[in-house]
Amino acid sequence: MPLIEYEIVTADIVMNQVFHRPIFDWERAARKFFATVYDAISPKYPISARELSLSQSIVLSDVSSRYSIFGGNSSVYLNPDKVGANFVGIQSRDIETAMDIQTAVQERFDSEFPECMVRSVEYRWVGHVRLRDRAVGDYLATFAPQLSGRPEITDFAYKPGIRFRLSRAQPTAEFELTAERSLAFDDALFISRAISLGLPDGPGTFAKRLALLVEFDEIGLRCANLTSSRT
Fold it and tell me: Taking the model in full, what pTM does it have?
């Protein structure tokens, strides 16, 4: 069966890269991260000082150094135990810019913070999509069990959905996907997928980590008979 392409209506994406060892010299690192972001993307993407913020706390896990992308809800950030990015309410047209910013910042971060070795990657994608050349009801029906004629369900409307998990032992990887009819948009599909990748011995660059993540994500989507030319 050919894969079904989808187009993003709106999505929230979070990617965290967890360190082997937390940053303990936090005050220095937090301000250095601002310079890292600025040098990575400016002047291509102008940065205002008001878009750079520090979150303070007496608990190390609660502090952060953050760049709010274009002053909005999306951001790239550093915590003592991870570096990450979240993109809120993005659409297909935003993906290229989002990935350009994250990649530039992360590559600069790898150079400026060589002591921050990444041990795992955590990824979460939640959003609404429209399928190309396929109605959502027809798509979901292909995954539905054959329940027609069962007397115990004749008074109910059956609404099929999808949920599954992929797991790999070495190197450690988990993929989980749920999909059901969107309640927010007509003839759209709501998808939630999560990925966890263990990197006990590397890879040492963001490009390699991202390639592993994309590869595993594409495998998971193919299991749901879905594909996208964009993330």
Answer: 0.90
